DNA sequence: ACCTGAACACCGTTCAAGT
DNA sequence: ACCTGAACACCGTTCAAGT
């Protein structure tokens, strides 16, 4: 059935946006491709590596020169997908995908530009802290959306005043200020 | 069978340390208590809320006056349990447990003490950023341990030089410095 | 009030056998 | 090389019925 790894990944991403991560199962992906469940395992090692591949796809458009831009871009790409942060957290924990180390490089070099005096170690620490913050905060943001049954594309409710892009950007500013003074 | 919510939670935590989160299933918890699977649902709403209760138990010993102490304490309690960070991330996303807001208060007040000039909003942002960093970094730490099949109680390998408590503490110092200068 | 029995509607993964 | 059929060993959750 000219099944391919790419076809599997994009079908998984379709199921993700339509039904959420809980309904992205190997069996449903297979059914959606008109194929037996076992057929997937010729192209993909296991479900974990499929999620890692989805993560790469989700994170690949992230760009930006400044940390502020990178933080907003990352948050934007995560919220563009249903359960995007949850996928990225699960996918980043699985190496073999360079998705998270690519992200780390982007953030680290932006921080080096904005705080040239800081040591490479400190820039790396700050980069990872910011990335984990965006992932974690966006995950909690999306979890609460799901519990309250709200649609993510709706007008931003006042309830997520504590989250949102603004506080993420503010964390980036704090990190840069810290790098400059230490 | 004098089944209770507490008994369920502590059995779940036993299974966690012995077999890992993937093997903490409602059915196994029930079997371990000598009870039918459905019996659990009289004391616990669902698996999600059981994990939230486990999270409260894991995070409750976290203490510290300074952010450095809090960061090490949080990292310590998470690594004391197999898959501790994964449980905490899943549990924190589920409200109804005050575990994560308690943690937020501890971190926020420590930051206020160390950077009294900062606004309450900034202290909150910094607190959440640090908490998410510790959770995320520890999760990746523990994921890699599992993949390499190493025991967590073994001597710290050189491979996790990038993670560990030191970089987490350093992030706390950067955050405090940022709060002081902004 | 609390628990059992039994079902419902699923999972991820493997692997002989086919083409 | 790539896929099917069919199985293995499970899941979370519900709910009538019992005590």
From TrEMBL, chains A, B:
The organism's superkingdom is given as Bacteria
Identify the keywords attached in UniProt to this record, alphabetized: DNA-binding, Transcription, Transcription regulation
Q: Which residues bind DNA?
A: 25-44
Q: Which Gene3D superfamilies match?
A: Homeodomain-like, Tetracycline Repressor, domain 2
- This chain belongs to the protein called TetR family transcriptional regulator
For this protein, the record's InterPro entries field holds:
DNA-bd_HTH_TetR-type_CS (IPR023772), Homeodomain-like_sf (IPR009057), HTH-type_TetR-like_transc_reg (IPR050109), HTH_TetR (IPR001647), Tet_transcr_reg_TetR (IPR003012), Tet_transcr_reg_TetR-rel_C_sf (IPR036271)
Tell me the ranges covered by the HTH tetR-type domain, including all copies.
Answer: 2-62
Molecular-function GO term, any one: transcription cis-regulatory region binding
Provide the GO biological process annotations. Answer: negative regulation of DNA-templated transcription; response to antibiotic
């Amino acid at each position: 059935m000219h099944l391919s790894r790419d076809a599997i990944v994009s079908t998984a991403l379709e199921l993700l946006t339509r039904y959420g991560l809980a309904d992205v199962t190997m069996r449903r992906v297979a059914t959606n491709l008109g194929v037996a469940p076992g057929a997937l395992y010729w192209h993909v090692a296991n479900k974990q590596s499929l999620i890692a591949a989805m993560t790469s796809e989700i994170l690949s458009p992230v760009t930006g020169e400044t940390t502020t831009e990178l933080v907003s871009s990352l948050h934007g790409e995560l919220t563009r997908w249903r359960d995007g942060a949850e996928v990225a957290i699960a996918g980043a924990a699985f190496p073999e995908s360079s998705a998270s180390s690519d992200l780390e490089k982007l953030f680290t070099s932006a921080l080096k530009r904005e705080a040239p005096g800081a040591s490479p170690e400190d820039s790396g620490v700050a980069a990872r802290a910011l990335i984990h913050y965006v992932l974690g905060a966006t995950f909690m943001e999306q979890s609460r959306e799901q519990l309250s049954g709200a649609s993510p594309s709706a007008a931003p409710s006042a309830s997520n005043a504590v989250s949102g892009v603004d506080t993420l950007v503010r964390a980036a500013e704090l990190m840069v200020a810290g790098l400059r003074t230490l």
